[in-house]
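Backbone-to-sequence.
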């Protein structure tokens, strides 16, 4: 669906609202971060919102997602509770993990959010295990596993893709390809940097989206999920995207000299929030901005008012 010909203003508004909520939520993190209220490192998705929203908007409430440490966008897009999320970042007991997990390990099982991990690629086999359970239960639910391009370099990723393809698991693999693993671009890590070409050899259907267009992502995901639900076979999607901020932390890092500045500018010019704002117009956009702002203010207030965990909590919910 091209932006110019889109008749579906309801969809446009919905996608815009969600992407804006993610952007403003993370901008709020940037605003408060240096006051030390946020108790964990943060990996921001600013610039990458279209992937999380374009994909998750197609998921049902009872579908599942697994995430990486760069999980704020997918957590919000899957319906994670904003108050509990902010409290978790603040290390407070009202957080979705009681304040013990922080930004890199957000989980909310009631919303189908299986969780995230700081260790690259480790949530991918967990997602496949969950998909195997759904298959054994003959459920029509689907698991979506989000990860970065760097995660496709881990052995456990290849093992999981093979297992999922062989056993025809109901799982959508979504590679958020920002072309960077910390400071290392894809071309410096692979002789063949076409990820889909690699993945096809496992006998799994692939889909590559290079435009960054949130409508194209939305449409392609819709089709992929239908196929997965009907056919119980996994699909791998590679979605090009771009992170504006540094790998970890809240700063710009353009001076660090590892980015192709033409590519940076291309993605800035292609910003999906700006594009959709133009379609919706100033009045509608201002109204949504106001609503988003009040949701975030409420989340901050909730986090501020929530107490830190009690000392007795130190040894609960841990394995050793
Ligand atoms: C198993 C493991 N190896 C290395 C690291 C260090 N590390 C943290 S993030 C990262 C880059 C991952 O890049 P990618 O998967 O593309 O995700 P992105 O950060 O771009 O979202 C690496 C190597 C880690 N956390 N875990």
């Amino acid at each position: 669906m091209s932006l110019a010909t889109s008749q579906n203003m309801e969809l446009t508004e919905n996608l815009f609202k969600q992407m804006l909520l993610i952007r403003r939520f993370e901008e709020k993190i940037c605003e408060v971060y240096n006051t030390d209220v946020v108790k964990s490192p943060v990996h921001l998705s600013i610039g990458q919102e279209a992937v999380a929203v374009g994909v998750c908007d197609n998921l049902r409430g009872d579908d599942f997602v697994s995430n990486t440490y760069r999980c704020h966008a997918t957590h919000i897009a899957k319906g994670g509770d904003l108050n509990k999320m902010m409290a978790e970042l603040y290390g407070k007991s009202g957080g979705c993990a009681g304040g013990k997990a922080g930004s890199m390990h957000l989980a909310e099982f009631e919303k189908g959010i299986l969780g995230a991990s700081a260790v690259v690629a480790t949530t991918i086999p967990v997602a496949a295990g969950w998909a195997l359970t759904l298959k054994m239960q003959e459920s029509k639910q689907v698991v979506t596993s989000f990860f970065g391009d760097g995660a496709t370099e881990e052995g456990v990723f290849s093992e999981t893709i093979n297992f999922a393809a062989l056993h025809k698991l109901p799982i959508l693999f979504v590679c958020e390809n920002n072309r960077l693993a910390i400071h290392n671009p894809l071309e410096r890590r692979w002789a063949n940097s076409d990820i889909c070409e690699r993945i096809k050899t496992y006998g799994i259907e692939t889909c590559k989206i290079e435009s960054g267009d949130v409508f194209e992502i939305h449409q392609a995901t819709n089709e992929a999920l239908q196929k997965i639900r009907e056919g119980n076979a996994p699909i791998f999607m590679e979605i090009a995207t771009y992170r504006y901020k540094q790998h970890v932390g809240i700063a710009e890092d353009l001076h660090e000299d590892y980015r192709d500045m033409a590519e940076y500018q291309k993605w800035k010019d292609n910003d999906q929030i700006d594009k959709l704002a133009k379609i919706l117009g100033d009045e509608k956009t201002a109204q949504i901005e106001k609503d988003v702002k009040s949701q975030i203010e409420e989340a901050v207030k909730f986090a501020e008012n929530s107490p830190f965990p009690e000392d007795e909590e130190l040894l609960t919910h841990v394995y050793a």
